[in-house]
Amino acid sequence: MRKRITIFGATGSIGENTVDLLTRQGGAEVYDVVALSGGRNVARLAEQAKALRASLAVTAFPECYEDLKAALAGSGVEAAAGPQALIEAADRPSDWIMSAIVGAAGLVPGMRALRHGTTLALANKESLVTAGPLLMATARANGARILPVDSEHSAVFQALAGEDIDAVERIIITASGGAFRDWPQEDIARATPEQASSHPNWAMGQRITVDSASMFNKALELIETKEYFGIDPGRIEAVVHPESLVHALVGFRDGGIMAHVGPPDMRHAIGYALNWPNRAELPVARLDLAEIGRLTFRPACETRWPALRLARLVMAQGGLSGAVFNGAKERALDAFLDRRIGFLQMNDVVEASLEVLSDHIVHSDTVMDLDVILHTDHLAREAAEGVISRLH
Ligand code: NDP
Ligand code: MG
To answer: According to its UniProt record, which protein family does this protein belong to (predicted)?
Structure first.
């Protein structure tokens, strides 16, 4: 049977890589593309939808609807816009849905897809950080499968194939260290958005690139590891690995460690999720280990990167603290990109927001529903804005 595919965030970095793989694997000849979503880049969304002969193209923003409709005129692809249209796209029967919207905006469509028992390829780490217990419970209750697309989590997933999760002693997530890994701390405080937006190893969207430089990306990934694999936070470690070739390692109780090694190319993790449980030939570079020569590792220092310390706090608190952490981080990132706060002040904003909302954060994973989480996300952004205006 032809596999039915939906891509949320098709015009982004993960989305483009997903479209590239689908195209290489036969495109519309092989797959039924149910829906593609994008944001403001409606010209590209229309191009993708036409090339893959999608049934539906959705822009998240109502003000972009007319442009999308015009770009699709005569193509036979239906156009739609707005948050409700994203939900309706998630309601259309599909076998494999890529969740690659950036930010907490990815949560609602992903949750909706899980309710239909669909396989969700999850790049949108923010939804696990914001609503991990709810997302995992929704998948379980509906017989849906979540396949990790974040490279580290795909690596862990692959290292765990055929293993007993109870035999896992530790999960080690690697971090490139981002744009400022070799900068003196004094200089980092003055880093500009342009400097933070270039990654030494990976080509990604701007927001995750800046999050890599601040280590908020790694902080999100530690929380993501706890939520997805259900591992005790004390067993989750981060290590800096500047070459970005080892994506994660799993240590077992007999002392053995399985490392996942590969080039820094997201098409591996996306292609793995697309073809799972099979492995297809993928267009990623093959490593020449003798040429690479050595792989290096350094401690991921929580003083240098306070985001890692905050992730520990969030993992210990559980409950709604992940939603506060992510919402405040997104607002702080906006403020940094708008040059309202300095690079290191993003940490202060998130820490202060967690404090401001400490009474709201319920220290239990059992009290979550989607409305409470979305409300918490809103409160977190408000709290962060309050802190930012005081810093400003
Ligand atoms: P991009 O910024 O490149 O793309 C984001 C996508 O979401 C685009 O299609 C964009 O549309 C769309 N979008 C933006 N804002 C909204 C909104 N408010 N509502 C709905 N759609 C929106 O991001 P990435 O591809 O880099 O990242 C996507 C997700 O994958 C993130 O959660 C990220 O953390 C995760 N991830 C990314 C990796 C990477 O290599 N890039 C690696 C691991 C995880 P448009 O551009 O048309 O405006
Ligand atoms: Mg990652």
So the answer is: Belongs to the DXR family.
